[in-house]
Automatic annotation (TrEMBL):
Signal peptide: none annotated. It comes from the Bacteria. This is Lipid A biosynthesis lauroyl acyltransferase. One of its GO terms (cellular component) is plasma membrane. PANTHER family: LIPID A BIOSYNTHESIS LAUROYL ACYLTRANSFERASE, PHOSPHATIDYLINOSITOL MANNOSIDE ACYLTRANSFERASE. Its main location: membrane.
Amino acid sequence: MLILLFKFISRIPLPILHFWGNILGYVMYYAVPRERNKIAENLQIAQLPHDKKSVLHVCQETIKGGLELPVAFFRQPEEISALFHEVYGWEHIQAALSQNQGLLLLTPHLGSYDLAGRYLSERLPFPLTAMYKPPQIKAFNEIMQLGRVRGKGKTAPTNLQGVKQIIKALRAGEATIVLPDHVPDPAEGDGVWAHFFGKPALTMTLASKLAQINHVRTLFFVGERLTNGRGFALHIAPLSGSLNGNKQHDAQIINNNIEQWIRRFPEQYLFAYNRFKNPTGVPPTVE
């Protein structure tokens, strides 16, 4: 039933989906005060507008992101590609292709990262492996796998086995996607405390480690959601700043880059995500 529901939603035209995203965003704002307050708190930490209008817009964009998942999972590749009307920075991809480099593609929980990843997968001449944290709901995990593992798309879980899979793909000159603002689980990988909008946040070290593999080009990308259901714009840019192998330094470089992207599209960041949580088993930091 869940698969049928996702397939039904995937056929709804994007302008209608985004219209309902705006309506349901009001519901989220008024009916889920815990999420509303978390969004307002995180916007304030980021020193971004956190008034009612701003929080409401974040709620609406968050709902739109959820409604776009069936589109990313079940629409045909050519239909997804047609949703991207603007592409900026493709020359950075092309430069990596011309030098036979592996591609480490980093994207925060910002904009429509699943649709943007599917678009990239279809345009690249080799497989793209996306790292993801399997959801606790088994049925939803099956849908995610069904939607992402198709064409040239592959997935790798956020554990040691998945990391080995990602490294192998990069060394083979393929592409991988990692969400660098994912809070690392102590059982899944290494993390260090680094500032995120001025507040300590447990930050994965995996992204910076992967970026320093020989013959790999690291790029950030964001799938910007255009207004009124008009589609998307893909933005691609190199990592800003230099990594030196020091975990703390490199984690801060990654966070600095994420902050820069969020400031460009603040309402499209998943501010309901608990970026500052302290996972069980991790010693707390002193601010």
